[in-house]
Structure formats: structure tokens, C-alpha cells
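Bumping with the actual sequence this time:
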Amino acid sequence: MVDALRALVEIETPSGDNEALEVGFAKLKSLMEQATGSSAQIDRVDGVPYLYLPASASPSVLFIGHLDTVWPKGTLTEIPFAVSSDVATGPGVFDMKTGLVIAMGAIARSEVSDHVAMLVTGDEEVGSVTSRALVEKYAKESLAVIVTEGAAPCGGIKKTRKGVALYKFTLQGKAAHAGLEPERGSNATVELGSLISDLFDLQNISAQTTVTPTVASSGVAINTIPDKAILHVDARAWTLSELQRIDTAIRSRQTKVAGVEITIAGGINRPPLEASVTSELVSLAQQAAIDVGLESINAVGVGGASDGNFTAAMGIPTLDGVGAFGGGAHARDEWVDLNSLTKRSEWLALICERVIAGGLSR
């Protein structure tokens, strides 16, 4: 399993680099077929590759993961894959290449492996634009979905996740000389400042709803009224109603600077993963953990989203955050505990067996 992990991490697979993703998926296909003895297929949507390992028997459980990472090509030379004292580090090791290895190990160990399918996508880190339909297509054929994203702190299950809305604001004003005739311009930077303030006011701290301006740019010259600005915004909430409140407020906002027009792209990207859909499967998983000799595993809510948000919104029992024991997602010091790989694979294999045996009321 460690050799498989090394092979995956040492092929860089940044989101948006389809050529690099193709190389990574070819390696993943080889490793998956070697581990499971079953044939996987690679296909593409709008040029973005994905891998699907079908179940050969029904009913089925679906594992979901992603191969793309947030790390640009070349990061591996700065942060190479390394193992020290049973801890592995490297770009993408926690989010989420170890989770893919654990899932493959679970399928290989499971007594119902013919009832287990696996979907690995290539654009999860940038919103699953091409792969959401794939996730929903294959999930609706399944009794349950298991998302092997990295675990919560202390190895916990992620029983709830915030929903996400992503926006790109393009502000179009009018340029003019800042000294000679500023009155002829429409200042996109001034409107940008007002927009950021208004967005920040949409937060609801008591409900843990966040609206976060992330990337912004404006202007081209220090003596020119800026005629264009760009702003990206990340909004997150525990409930769909909160995301809808934010979306409505954003789309009804009036500009403050005369002559500036704003175009809005994006919207609600992932609905929340709610406990009402996960609770029964979480309980089954917690008992299975005890039965394979793992310590009692807690279940928590987290602010990050995953493709499990989509499947839970469909009403399909979803178990999330059961991949790598580690930490540092999207950070240069991301790490995983290699001692946990085998045991967590055994755990997921047992969960599959109990779901197929009728362990859920659905």
C-alpha cells in the first residue's frame, strides 16, 4: 500500500492540467486492477479524465474519491514524497491520494468486492464542474456511498459538512486620468471596496455562516481611474436556506458607484451534507470500527465540502471522511500515518459487507 501511495504522489496531478491527470489516471488504473483483480475504465468529460470501477453484482456500494490536487506542477521537487517514523508526507498525500489507496485496499479485502464500485474524478478541487453529473449518476445506483476523503482530527468521521457557494464578480467601470479629469471615470476599485464590505455583512456568526472574499484584482496604472476589477468569493453554511439567503442578497444588491456594472458568475456549488442522511451509516461504521479493533471513532461536522455533499443531497446514505488518518490538507506539511492504512482498509471492507448484508433500513 505504501508503494502504491508513493507511485500516486510522485505523479503530480494538479486540477486543470489534463495531460498530467491522464498520466496519473493511467497509473491509478494499473494499481487498482492489480489490487482488486477487476477491470477499471478511464473516460473523459470535456477533456477531464475520470476512472470508474464497476460493481459486477447488485446491490452495490460506491466508493468516491478524486485524483486532482491543489498543488501546481513542480511542487514535488520542493516537497518530495518522504517517509519518516511511519509518517508519509508529500503533495496530495492527505488530500486525497492515501484515501484512494485505502479504498483499493478495502475492495481487495472485502468479501463482497463484487458488490463494490469506485469512482475517481479529476476536478473535485475546483468544484466538480465536469464530474458532478458522474457522481450523481453512479450514486443513484448504490445502497450507500463511502467518500474516502481524509479523516477529521483524531481519525473522526465527517458526519456533516457545510454547503458551498462560489462566486466571481466582474466589475466594469470607465477609465479616466486620475489627475486631469477623474470625474469622467467610473471607479471600479471604489465599487469593489463597497462590494467587499456588503458581502462581509452577509455573514451570520451565530449560525457559523461565512462569506469570504478570496482573490481580488483591480486597476492597471497608478494614475488611472480603474475601469475593471475582479473578485472571487467563497460562502459556506450548514443549511441550504442560509446559502439561498446569501445568493438572493448577492443578486439583488445595487451598485454604489455610478457607471459601474457588475456581472456575477457562479452560485451555490455544493449543498450541505446533513446529519439526517448520514446518521444511520455513521452508527454502522462506528460499530464496525470497534469490531475490527480500532479505537472508538468520533463523528464531527467540518467546514470543508466534498462530493459527498452531492450524494447526501440526493438522500443516499453517505459516509465521509473515512480515508487517511493525518492532517494538513492544502498545506505544505500535509501528512498521513502509514500505520493506519491496513486497519482502515479492513474497517471499510467490513462496512461494505454489512451494508450489502442489509445493515441499513433503506
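The C-alpha cells above came from a reply further down the thread. The longest helix spans residues 18-36.
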